[in-house]
Write a structure and sequence with these properties.
Blueprint (H helix, E strand, L loop, with lengths): L4 H26 L6 H13 L5 H8 L3 H13 L3 E5 L7 E5 L1 H25 L1 H20 L2
Length: 147
């Protein structure tokens, strides 16, 4: 009997949700003390971007509300991991940049996470991981377009 598209979709998303939950749980346990997964995500994004972002841009990038992003940014600023400055042309806007301490914290988190995710890639095989990445990227792009 042919598998229905809906059954295949349920199986796919069930596996994605479970893998996401397991990955988040394992990664959260190895992050440096006091760092949350959301903090690492923002620091990693800023480190890779190389320039400032507005809180609204960050909220859109992470698909969270501005309030949720403000909460994360407040914690990161308090920890000294980011700098928030006003937009000199528009006082209503702010810009966020990673600080040297934030870059160090991000690098420490990467060092802590790398062995864990490296083990998963090694167990699955690099070729299989390379093969699935385009499908996952296309799925993400499709889901982002449906918002």
């Amino acid at each position: 009997m042919a598998e229905k598209t809906e059954d295949l979709a349920i199986a796919l998303f069930g596996e994605l949700f479970m893998a996401d939950q397991l990955a988040r749980n394992r990664i959260s346990k190895v992050l440096p003390k006091g760092m949350e997964l959301s903090h690492f995500g923002v620091l990693n994004h800023l480190a890779r971007a190389g320039d400032e972002r507005t809180p609204a841009q960050l909220a859109r990038s992470f698909h969270v509300t501005r309030g949720a992003m403000t909460n994360t940014l407040t914690k990161l600023e308090w920890a000294g991991h980011i700098h928030i400055r006003p937009d000199w042309d528009d006082a209503r806007r702010k810009f966020v940049a990673i600080s040297p301490a934030g870059r160090s914290a991000r690098d420490a988190a990467v060092q802590a996470i790398a062995p864990l995710i490296g083990e998963v890639v090694q167990a699955l095989g690099a070729e299989r991981v390379r093969a699935v990445l385009p499908v996952l990227r296309e799925m993400r792009t499709k889901l982002e377009g449906d918002e």
